[in-house]
Structures are given as C-alpha cells and as structure tokens.
Please model this.
Amino acid sequence: MFRSLPIALALLLSPGLTRAAEQAAPVAVPATSTIFVASDAAALDQLEENPAVTRRMVDQLVLAVTQQPDVAKAWRSLVSPADVVGIKVCAAGGRYFASHRGIVEAIASGLEEAGVPAARIIVWDRALPELRAAGFTAHRDGFQVRGIAPVSGYDREAPVTAATLGKLIWGDLLFHDPRKRDGKRVAAADQVSSTSHLASVVSREITKIINVPVLSDESGCGVAGALYNMTVPNVDNWRRFTHPEGGAEAIPDLYADARLGPKVVLTIMDALRPQYAGGPHFNPNYAFSLHTIFASKDPVALDAHALRLLEGWRKEAKLPPIGKRAAWLESAAQAGLGNFAEQKIALRPVESK
Model:
C-alpha cells in the first residue's frame, strides 16, 4: 500500500493533521463521561434482529442520555427541524456485520417525531453497494440513503492534509489515470499524496450527525469505532489512516475538524453482535451475540471501552493485543475530544423493557 520512501518521509513529520481545515471551538471535557448501556437477550434471534426490541432499546438510551420525558423531546434537544440530520452507519460488514437496520429506523423515527422531515434525514456510508447489502434502501425507509461516489463524491474545497503520505488509487479525487497528460505519462504506482478530501455530503449538506458505528477491531488502527466511523469512511486517500506506521495518529485531528466530529450530537454504538478480529468486514469466526447497544456523547470514552472489551475477548481467544495499534485513542483524549482513562468513564445500565 505504501512505498518505503513515502513512509520514510512521513515519519520525519508530525503525525497530526497540518491541514487547510476548519478548526472547531474547543469544548470542555467533563471530569467523568457516561456510557449508557442497553442490553436485551431478545434483541437478536440467532443472526436476525428483532426491530421492536432494538427500537425500545434506542428509545430508552436517548431518554437516558438527554434526561427528557419523552422520545420526541429527547431528539428535539439534540436536533431541530431545520437541520439536515445524517445517520452515519457502518455497512462494510454487509448483512451480518453492519449497523442494524432496526437501530437506524428507530433513530429516524425518533427524529421524525422531533419534527425532522424524512427527506432531511440522510443515512450514509462510503459504498452504496455495501449499504444495499446491509438492507438500507431509500424507497423502503423514507429517509435518503447515500453512498459516496468515487471522485465526484468528494469536496475539492474541503481538503485535509496529514503528514503520512498515501498511495492514490482510482476513486481518490487527485488520482490521475496512467495516461499521457501534456506529453507526460503519470504512473499509477508513483502517485502519492498527503491530502485527503471530505465527502461533500458531510462538508456541504449535513448539519447534525448521529454516529452509529459497530463494535469492531481494525487491523491497522486497532479499533473501528466512533472516531474511525466518522473519519476514515468520510475522506478519500483514506488507507493511510489505518496504516500501522502511525497514520492513525491523524484520526483525532481529523475528527476535530468542524465539518466532522463537532457535528455529532450523539454516538450510538451497535454492539448487538461485536467482532474482535477481522473487522470491520464480517468474519463469523470472531463475532458473537452480545445483545447490547451503547450510547454516549463522548466518542473517546466509547472507543476506550470498546478497546478494553476487544482486548479481553482477544485474550480469551489467544489473539495478540491491539493496544499499541490503538494508542492514538489516548492522543484523542489528550487533544480534548473525550475521556480515555477507565476511572473517568461511568457505565450506566438503562431499562430496555
């Protein structure tokens, strides 16, 4: 994926973003972050979701997070009818390891109760075929379903530049086909760049976001959770951010961009069936039913808790630890994006029946 020269150059530079991007105003991190936990053994029957149960779980979670008396007021405390609300799902795992449809439908229903028209709700991920494989279709659900089109789906006016260089491939905005241009041939293998571009759907359209990652490992950056789900699938030239040579250290800065993370009003982590190896693509050998959904306003706390769970499951399975690959999560905490330390994270169960 990376040539040795680009890697050597990248390692001479700071791992963070040195980008032309919009910095969000800093937000004070609470002394303690709360993760609300809903569990119900009836949420899954084998591999099939029970949407009535998961809707109840989502409703109870959003009530707990917002401390509002009903679902409509709960969502209205997070968004307004004037917002274009994006629901960022993870569809890379296909039918059996994607953000579950029932969870997403419960969120969309709650948003509509809060006065957000279905036409102003966008469910999206990088690849439209993966969204369809996961069961998301616009005509079926009322809300919009969007993939990010190769090349044209990225915003040329929204570049983000990180020190780690990435090899460009077809679909990246700055990739040139290996054909003659002005008498010169541009070899595909020689194209590297330190620049990525945000997806236009998030840089130009969506004003508020509900982030719905799955609980998964990732071979390069360790954890494909809340911060990963909002960053890596929303930019081109993304492969460098999951490279073991330190590319993931840019993820916290990328999340902090005003056009990404600060738009997130709530993260709901789908842990109905987590996977502790081989993610974020589906591998049934490492997935199991946990029947749980987490919710928090602190994405770092969610990812830190996910990392500790993943490490425990991997240890039981005699798989190597992933802590070093996920060291960037501590950098996210140091950057003020949330709490990483276990003693600063409180788990609060909610009644889901």
User: Anything to note?
Assistant: The longest strand covers residues 154-167. The chain is about 25% helix and 25% strand. The first helix runs from residue 4 to 11.
